[in-house]
Design goal:
4-stranded mixed β-sheet; 17% strand
């Protein structure tokens, strides 16, 4: 290679190096964990299937792409009068069902522990209190969000959009609402709710 060619090659390499250095990414000899690849799930709630027999549509909140969102479920209509606590248990049972195939394909999952259940009404509690087998503060953040938002969205269960939750008696009670922070922030459960 001629002297002129070497000078041109050196100048080209210097220019390329300065362009790469200006992109804001520094080289490193230490492996860097950049996290998982971007999610390609749609998080679009699938349409509820065709009704079979007597059913009613209920909204259930599930986890999708680090937030929670509502999906519709067709729930069989129960005969006779269903009291408030039975409606709570019915909604909660929908959260414990594994996401339906269409929901899974859209990227939905649940954070509700399989060991969690709704406790019977505690007679010493005020009306419309939901006690669960584990303290709300002990739940994964998105599990709490799923529970609160599912119950708060049902106007028969929570006419004012608020839910009063507690662990086994005599654990203290807290009032929760389905806030945007609770729906999107993985750490929101640490400060969610107000003491009753």
């Amino acid at each position: 290679m001629s002297a002129r060619g070497r000078v041109a090659l050196t100048a080209s390499l210097a220019a390329a190096t300065s362009l790469l250095a200006g992109c804001g990414i520094r080289g490193t000899t230490v492996p860097v964990d950049a996290g998982p690849a971007p999610s390609r799930v749609s998080c679009e709630a699938p349409q509820a299937g065709a009704a079979r027999g007597e059913t009613v549509r209920r909204e259930v909140f599930l986890v999708c792409s680090m937030q929670i969102a509502a999906v519709s479920r067709q729930v069989p209509v129960r005969e006779g009068r269903v009291d408030w606590h039975e409606q709570v248990v019915e909604l909660f049972s929908q959260l414990q069902i594994s996401p339906l195939p269409a929901e899974t394909r859209a990227g939905f999952s649940t954070a509700i522990p399989g060991s969690l259940w709704v406790l019977p009404i505690e007679r010493r509690d005020p009306r419309h209190v939901v006690r669960i087998s584990q303290g709300p503060a002990e739940l994964p953040s998105f599990a709490l969000a799923e529970l609160v938002c599912t119950l708060a969205a049902d106007r028969q269960v929570a006419p004012d959009g608020q839910v009063v939750l507690g662990g086994p008696a005599p654990a203290p009670l807290r009032t929760y609402t389905c806030t945007s922070d609770l729906r999107t922030d993985p750490d929101a459960a640490d400060s969610a709710g107000t003491a009753l």
